[in-house]
Amino acid sequence: SLRDVLSDRSRLYGLVRAGRRLVQSRTGQSDLLHPEFTRAVEAVTEERSAYVAIHDGPEWRALLSPSYRRRVLDLEDLRIRIGLELTIDALLRMDAAAKAAETRLIVALLPTKEAVFAPRMRGAADHPDLQRLWAAEDEARARLLAALTRAGVTTVDLGPALAASTAQPYFENIDGHLDAEGHDLVAREVAAALGR
Questions:
Q1: Residue 56 — left, alpha, or beta (φ > 0 → left; ψ -120 to 50 → alpha)?
Q2: pTM reported for the whole predicted model
Q3: Which has the closest alpha carbon to 60: 166, 150, 132?
Q4: Checking CA distances to 115, which of 56, 67, 93, 134 falls within 20 to 30 Å?
Q5: CA dihedral 27, 33, 36, 41 (to 10 degrees)
Q6: What is the CA radius of gyration of the chain?
């Protein structure tokens, strides 16, 4: 089956599978995803601490997964560099198609949860992979923005608005997705870029 082929030949598939096994409890739902911060923190075992950073700041708090996120942003990995080049090419073709159809493409850059937390953590040694993740994400974002700006593609970098939010825009557990506040903020930023 395709799953077996991917399992045998894809390092990224293997990493995702191993990561999922690491965070899942025997009941199938990881305690790292518990909606209560303290319960999620209790699930960070010594083994998991190699992959999970706990940030319990005065304003925001959450579990972060810098090792996992860094692997997909590490431009020293040829596969990631090629993926970024293909993404830029696809976005440029999408912009050309939009212009040909007399419409407008806006590319919204959504940062990782870890990048949004960075201003509240800079200088902190919360996890060894955080600094490397921040550097890798900064480089990938800079390359993407430079290429799109050169081509005249409208972009909205959501990172600054999310980082400046007074309310935490991400879940407190290991979930790296935006919460309701984060989605509302993104909608307002995109609406502003559309002139609405």
A1: beta
A2: 0.80
A3: 166
A4: 93
A5: 90
A6: 18
